[in-house]
Amino acid sequence: MESTPELRTLSIGMPRSMQTAGGKEYVSAICKDTSAEAFLSVDGFTGDGIADTKHHGGPDRAVCIYPAEHYPLWEKEFSCTLPSSTFGENLTVSGMLEKDVCIGDVFQVGEAVIQITQGRIPCSTINMRTGLPDLMKKLIDTGFTGYLCRVLNEGKVRADSPITLLERDPNAVSILYANEVYFKQPRDLDGLKRIAAVDALAADWQEKLAKRIDKLQKV
Q1: How many CB atoms lie within 10 A of CB 108?
Q2: Residue 111 pLDDT class (50, 70, 90 cuts)
Q3: Contact by Cβ (8 Å): 9, 85
Q4: What share of the chain is helix, strand, coil (3-state, %, to 5)?
Q5: Which contiguous run of DSSP H or E holds residue 16?
Q6: What mean pLDDT comes out for the span 53-81?
Q7: How far is the C-alpha of 219 from the C-alpha of 216, rounded, in Å?
Q8: Is residue 1 helix, strand or coil?
Q9: What is the overall mean pLDDT for the chain?
Q10: Alpha-helical runs (H) found in the chain
Q11: Nearest-angstrom CA–CA distance, 143 and 138
């Protein structure tokens, strides 16, 4: 880690009915409210929810994290001011960029212990929430997607809780590297195998990568 991790914002929220800038209605939990304290269980934060259970949530994706350092970049790129937890993240953090954290890394946040499982796969809800139609594509192009975690030990998390790195995964597969292979190098067999070899990788990614690897090996 190049700098000390720091929790900037703790955010939770339940699904609610929303409208795009064009007036289209949709239901999402992407708009979250800042919280002073919340209990983190293996299923996620108490008081936090998801609308699309097919593509989001589950034990491997109980916590969503996004680096605070990217906010100024996007605000400059799109000449706008972004609200807190723009990307629906539970924890907005500094000192934990995608290039610096790896799948399998373990952190303590307050009383809870979490483990990084995969990069976040951005969806169009981000565009609808912000009214920025190119934002999702930019997240994917840069690899600045944020990432997801499972909960190893449950406990309370406060907005001012320290974040401590407890364990580095020996495979050293960074989120940025995994994003590069997943989104831009779908035929990189060695890269796919390197990511798939990480025991802590989310089951959903394990299945997706296994299918890609199997298909490439049959060619």
Answers
A1: 19
A2: very high
A3: yes
A4: 25, 30, 45
A5: strand 16-19
A6: 90
A7: 5
A8: coil
A9: 93
A10: 70-78, 125-130, 135-142, 175-179, 189-196, 203-218
A11: 8
